[in-house]
Amino acid sequence: MHAIEATAISKKFGNLLALSDVNFSVADGETFGFLGPNGAGKTTTIRILTGITVPTAGTATIFGHDIIRETIAARRQMGIVHEISNVYDDLSAWHNILFASELYNVPRSAGERRGKELLELFGLWERKDDRVKGFSKGMKRRLTLAMGLVNDPRLLFLDEPTSGLDVQSNLIIREVIRELTGQGVTVFLTTHNIEEANLICDRVAIINRGQIAAIDSPERLKKTIQSVQSVEVAFDPSSPKLLEHLRELPLVSEVRKEGDKFRLITEDPSGVIENVTTYAREHHTRIISMTTIGPSLEDVFIRLTGLMIRVKGVKAID
Amino acid sequence: MTDLNESCGQLCRELKAAWAIAKKDIRIYYLKPNIIVSGMLFPLFMFLAFAIGRDAPPTMLVPGLIAITILFSASSIEPVSIPIERRTKTFDRLLSAPVSLHSVVLGESMSGFLYSTGIALVPLSAGIILFSTPIVQPLALIGGVLLTSFCFATMGTLFAAYPTESPGDIMSMLNLVRLPLIFVSGVFIPVNALPPIGQIAVLFSPLTYGNDLIRAAFEGTTHFNPMMDVLAICVFILLFQLAANHLYRKFNE
Q1: Are A51 and B96 in contact (CB < 8 Å)?
Q2: Cα distance from B147 to chain A (closest Cα, Å)?
């Protein structure tokens, strides 16, 4: 039985078609990433799968329970971590977590035991009696995640779990996700952090303008755009003129400046290496490092969503 | 038998979740300044504006004060709490929990009900202690206070279904209904002293029946049959609950 099975889901808001014929399934125990630019339909999909919103057409099941007809049975299987840390600022961390356990009908003693475990796991136990109002963004995020786990869900929806967080919170949350997947919990993750999806997910779906553009494992998706290979090179000294010069090199289709390095997109990496070496020799500049890089999941994302064209070279994916 | 057990189990889970929602509201919202102003001070000043200078006995004024205190306090929690929770997205937490929308509406209404029942003790105590107002039918008082509180708490939850993140939007709409209700419910002007059109209008106001029951507790007589008062309030509660459930579902789509 699949953890999630979405069949021909469409959603209209007035005249706007937010989702169009979306089909996918997530296997029990799988970590599934859902990527897409803003407004692509990620949040609408999560709202439909969690029974908050009803689809205009199509169906979805959670462990075999229809999300429209058997909403409560389906929701009992899941934990939900919303995009915004929706904790109660005027309650303490402890009362927040107890409220979540009561809402999910976890017996009092089990809720207290689980609440203590989770607050300890997320490094919040020392602050359990403090009102959440004084917590940092990362602490609130960790508490939101703890509240989503209080019922020991078989399926966890994570909407942008690490977006904009400090390093400590990021590390804790990623470690917990790794532990959960190790325990067989199914994770449905939306993220803007493509590298995160690449590292964590068994499969990813890329959604754009309400339609699924691709679904596969990160590695197989990368293979679909082998033409997007690149050479990453750093020079000493580095100057702003380099960007212009590198663009004029033969075989280079595009150049991106990435920190102190340049990334030269090409279909022929060995030819470009030769050209760069010649350029460096002729211009008396030293190559500090040079590496060939295969297509990244981000390249797949950009290619499938057409984002690069719209933003004229800026790699914003939010 | 298994189906019956499952149904009982589900009902129990729903009631527990509703109570958890009510407790959360009690912890967070009871001491918010706008709720204190809207729920306690506003009815007091309304009452003073009408009562001062009128040569009316306490047995006439105290029931009216209790009734309008309940009207304003019961319907003040949700119009504040729900828009705030929409803004902070904590309302999504309730909508995505494994409980029915009925339980969410019930839980939200329960906090207004308990708040209002507690607040109603203030004018009641003042009537007994300051004016030595006698209570001749305690059962009518208890029934009247509890039912009227629950009815207006549910009305507050119904108005809060309007999809806004600003409490002011809902309070404005609510006052358009609450203020006229005072004049067509026999609170300050007895029902039989109203013009014919007013006597028809009172039938559509839940405050009429609540006020009638509470007045019976002090004066010993009612305008309507007490059982009709109880039945009418129960019908209003049911209508508000069903309408609220429908609107939360509709606005959420």
Answers
A1: yes
A2: 26
User: Nearest-CA neighbor of B109 among B86, B61, B75?
Assistant: B75
- ipTM exceeding 0.90? no
pTM of the predicted protein model: 0.81
Hey, what are A249's tokens? 């090199």
Contact check, Cβ <8 Å, B13/A105: yes
Residue B202 DSSP class: G
Task: From chain A, pick out residues whose CB is under 8 angstroms from the CB of B16.
Answer: 102, 105
Would you write out chain A's pLDDT as a tens digit for each of its 318 residues? 899 999 999 999 888 999 999 999 999 999 999 988 888 889 899 999 999 999 999 999 999 999 999 999 999 999 999 888 999 999 999 999 999 999 999 999 999 999 999 999 999 999 999 999 999 988 999 999 999 999 999 999 999 888 777 788 788 888 888 899 899 999 999 887 777 888 889 999 988 889 998 898 888 887 776 667 888 999 887 777 788 889 999 989 888 888 889 989 888 888 899 999 999 998 888 999 998 887 777 777 777 776 544 444 433 333
Q: Which long-range contacts (CB under 8 A, 24 or more apart) does A255-264 make?
A: A256/A313, A256/A315, A258/A232, A260/A234, A261/A232, A261/A233, A261/A234, A261/A289, A262/A232, A262/A233, A262/A234, A262/A235, A263/A230, A263/A231, A263/A232, A263/A293, A264/A230, A264/A231, A264/A232, A264/A233
- Between chains, do A105 and B28 touch, taking CB under 8 Å as contact? no
* CB-based contact, B87 to chain A, within 8 Å: no
Is CATH 3.40.50.300 correct for A2-216? Answer: yes
Q: Does A99 touch chain B (CB under 8 A)?
A: yes
What fold does the segment set A229-294 form as a domain? Alpha-Beta Plaits (3.30.70)
Q: Rounded distance, CA B71 to CA B207, Å?
A: 7
CATH 3.40.50.300 residue ranges of chain A are: 2-216
